[in-house]
Amino acid sequence: MRTRFNYANVTATLALFFAMSGGALAAKHYLINSTKQISPKVLRALKGKTGKPGAPGKEGLLGKEGASGKEGPQGKEGKEGPQGKEGGAAVALAKGQTEVGTWGAWGTAAEGGYLADSVNFRIPLSGALNSSHVHFIKEGEAPTTECPGKHQAPAAASGNLCVYETFSGGSTFQAIFPNSIGAGTGSDPYGFDIFFTASGTHGVWDYGTWAVTA
Fold it and tell me: What predicted TM-score, i.e. pTM, was given to this entire model?
């Protein structure tokens, strides 16, 4: 029997050849190690769209406080300043200003005995005070215009010295006099003396406070 070649036979033969060739090509594997091996059109098709930004995250916890740094070196000592001028003599107590203090006298009672104390003003007065401006307020006596305070809070009107008695025993007040001369009645610019007589057979005492206002 003779085989004839016609259009149908050739077509069928070629179809079989390409089918077998295509299968053989499909069976091969190719390693892609660079995007340059891929068509730019394919890369654009494969690339996805950028997604929407996510919601902001919660604020993190506050970190622990860091350790204290090392103490810095001590600075250089500054230069010594110039010496100040020598102070002058104490000035007189200003008009209307008051200074206060305490006094106390004690001793032993005897025939013709007495006790006394001497007080110095920390700031001198501008002048002496006469007897009309020096006052002794006995224990329990009420305040006066010249001496409006009391022994717990001594006070004196301007131009007056007020001596307040806190408590006493076996003593009798006699006088307040300038301590610069030790006699008379009143006070000098620097202070005063106070004098008592003593009675009884035991110890005697007298204590109190004072105030003077310029």
Answer: 0.59
Residue type, 46: L
Mean pLDDT of the chain: 82
pLDDT in tens, 54-63: 788 788 788 7
pLDDT tens digits for range 101-115 = 999 999 888 767 889
Report the C-alpha gap between 136 and 144 in whole angstroms: 11
Domain boundaries, the chain: 98-213
Query: 8 phi and psi, to 5 degrees?
Result: -65, -40
Q: What does the alpha-carbon distance between residue 114 and residue 107 come to, in Å, rounded to a whole number?
A: 8
**Is 80 exceeded by the pLDDT of residue 192?**
yes
